[in-house]
Task: structure prediction
Amino acid sequence: MSFASLNLAPEILRAVHEQGYTEPTPIQAQAIPAVLNRLDIMGCAQTGTGKTAGFTLPLLQLLVPFASSSTSPAKHPVRALVLTPTRELAAQVEESVRTYGKYLPLRTALLYGGVDIKPQIKSMQGGVEIVVATPGRLLDHLEQKSINLSQVQMLVLDEADRMLDMGFMPAITRILAALPPMRQNLLFSATFSEDIKKLANGFMRNPTMIEVARRNAPAELVTHQVYEVPALKKHALLAHLVKSRDMQQVLIFCRMKRDADKLARQLVRDGLSATAIHGDRSQSERSLALDEFKTGKVKLLVATDVAARGIDIDQLPFVINYEIPNTPEDYVHRIGRTGRAGSPGEAISLVSPEEMDYLHSIEKLLKREITRLPLPLLGGDRETRPPRERESGFQPRSTASALSEEERRERSEQRRLREAKDSGRTRRAPFQPIERTPSVTLPSYPHFDFSKPYEPSKSEPIVDTVAVKPAHPGKNIPRPVGALLGRKKTGKV
Ligand code: AMP
Result:
């Protein structure tokens, strides 16, 4: 099949041709005619299958009759809305719309959060036919009345599963309510859970299902491998893999933002070029990190699941799961970053004993066992050094010292935490609560040493009330010391 047989306008075919695409991918071959026939569609497709062009090309085609060079904003109402879960994906989709629509007088706007809303408002005021947005920022525009969705004919939900995971359901419900009921709906998702089906059934009209890969199946061109490795050795193993295999472009996944940052810093200390991308970084930092990674300036990009959505890199050869995800669907998404557009990729997971249950869930979803690779001898392992070197006290540098250094650091950190905890326990003597609120208690008992357990001395007058830890801050209830010591009330002070 050729693009020419898909009834696309010459302007669109020209832009497609410039991209060097010779024939539609399977999802494009199925989705383009269905969308042009005004059907609602549910597309089950991974990123990397060409799904963006699968909905962008027919969307542009359906808007060709409305393309106008008029400068009047009234001639450019919003006619198509594409919602994506992340800013990165929104930016990529918008770029695709611009690329494929470059020969058509249609206007596009990109609306996402984390950046100043004013320029977005200005672009909306000029009139825009195609809006690509993240749900939160679109709601901001709706609230500020800087966008009017009453003429939208097409709605696209891209990576709908992730939108649900990220808790965008309430925002989506509000956005749906702002759209005209008569419209065409396209929903794309790499995985099709029951929740997604429920969402789809709630707003779509008899959707046509288009599925190009086995449901929840990661890209077929990807080789999956697992190293079973203790958590403490993961860093050394990662550094070893990157160095020994001379990996030039690796997307590395962590579960938590702070771990992504920490790992990127450790890798830089190892002399590797690495950076991190996650939701706590500003949009400009994320864009810079992504650009540096795409252009090869930085070889290792450490990402969290959410931040990595929408990262579109042709021929990304390696994805390394430094920590495997705790939901198997996220594994599918992660792996979807490699093996894209026909290029082979490798997905390597470093799995600690604590993560084995997660691995089993992933294998269940994939319906196969992932190949285990033997753990290479890592620097820092005693056996790695030949006996002669061990005897001579030879200390190799590189990963060997990196591991032992790292292990030492982690252990000393753990020891420090343990000690801090223990000493905290010792200090938590009977009057510790008073110590923590000295401004309340100390002025009343200037002679009292609160750091020691209470011992009445003969030389000291017995103070018969002490403040105890207030149940509610601010409500300090005095209790008789005698009662605390089990003495009977005498009626005397
Ligand atoms: P997507 O699944 O939309 O993220 O697309 C994955 C990659 O495939 C993108 O880098 C596209 O540029 C590329 N691509 C899309 N359609 C085609 C096609 N028909 N032929 C070759 N590459 C394509």
